[in-house]
Amino acid sequence: MATLTSKEWALAKRPVGMPQQADFSMKEESIGEPKDGEIQVKNSWMSVDPYMRGRMYDRESYVPPFQIGETLTGGAVGKVTASAHPDYSEGDLVVSMAGWREAWTAKPEEMMANKVPQTGLPDSALLGVAGMPGLTAYAGILRVADLKEGDVVFVSGAAGAVGSTVVQIAKIKNCTVIGSAGGAEKCNLVKELGADEVIDYKQHESYESLVGALKAAAPKGIDVYFDNVGGDHLEAAIECARPMARFAECGMISQYNATEPVPGPRNIIQVVGKQLRIQGFIVSTHTDMQPQFLQDMAGWIQSGKMKFEETVMEGIETAPDAFLGLFSGKNKGKMLVKLG
């Protein structure tokens, strides 16, 4: 067993609007040998995700806010380098919430760490299509949106980690899928994943233009909306929804960096007449689906029905850049940081 040195990122100050590099600070920590019940892990991959922006505010939410000066947390994959825990051995692969750092020593439960069985998937996939984003897509479209064969499904943020998985699940379930993404490259990706129609929202920057594009793609309306964006996309979905349509509200990234309250949908009155069901959800509420999710996902990947894209940045030093890239559309699929 040995002591390790870990480069780690902390929140230097709370961002106002779009986060900046100056909002983050790097430090080095000495990672000691494990004591009774602890394991020492060297991370190989870490995740950055849009929800982390919400934790940078000092306000109550479904997860506590990040504290100034403390190492940030998030999804990570690593290998046990030393163990004083009866259930973990050197070389075991673990998924944890101990991201934004190169190494750590703690009791597994303190870092929400779990040993990973052999899946045949790349380690990085455990943070994406076979990890939290994948389960978010799976629970959101199948349970929250109550997907039915033949539904017309609209997915915003369709080139991202969650959205791209939703597109493919909906196609596996024999639905018509319309995806929204920004720019030709991302739109081509969504098309390659099986979407029947793709809207380049950068070509439809006004609400009226976006509604026109969605009506052209779904002339009879939509049955399901999976929302990753909010704003104009949510309004357009309400405008084009069929009676009894179901909305799974996963995220609203267009508003995460707003400095003052954003007006709600101007056409919210249609929710009553169309009898729409609009439900927000958090993936942690649906962890009971994890076993079936992993079984289905492994089968879909092995059969070629599920593909996944990753945008990888190299080295712990790039973690803030990777996070900021989520808000400027630099990622195709899952944004990841590969550690040394």
| CATH topology assignment of the largest domain | Quinone Oxidoreductase, Chain A, domain 1
Query: What characterizes the major β-sheet?
Result: 7 strands, mixed
Proportion of strand residues: 25-35%
SS-based class: alpha/beta
Could you give a quick summary of the protein structure above?
This protein is an alpha/beta fold and 340 residues long. It is built from eight helices and 15 strands.
Description:
The protein is of the alpha/beta class and 340 residues long. The protein folds into two domains: 155 residues, Medium-chain alcohol dehydrogenases, catalytic domain (Quinone Oxidoreductase, Chain A, domain 1, Alpha-Beta Complex), CATH 3.90.180.10; 153 residues, NAD(P)-binding Rossmann-like Domain (Rossmann fold, 3-Layer(aba) Sandwich), CATH 3.40.50.720. It is built from eight helices and 15 strands. The strands form three sheets. Strands 3, 4, 5, 6, 7, 14 and 15 form a seven-stranded mixed sheet that branches. It is globular. The two termini are 19 Å apart.
Feature tags:
single chain; 340 residues; alpha/beta; Quinone Oxidoreductase, Chain A, domain 1; Rossmann fold; 2 domains; seven-stranded mixed beta sheet; six-stranded parallel beta sheet; 8 helices; 25% strand; globular
Give me the secondary-structure topology.
Layout: E1 4-11, E2 24-31, E3 39-47, E4 76-83, E5 93-96, E6 103-106, E7 114-115, H1 132-144, E8 152-155, H2 161-172, E9 176-181, H3 184-192, E10 197-200, H4 207-217, E11 222-227, H5 232-240, E12 241-249, H6 270-273, E13 277-280, H7 290-303, E14 310-314, H8 319-325, E15 334-338
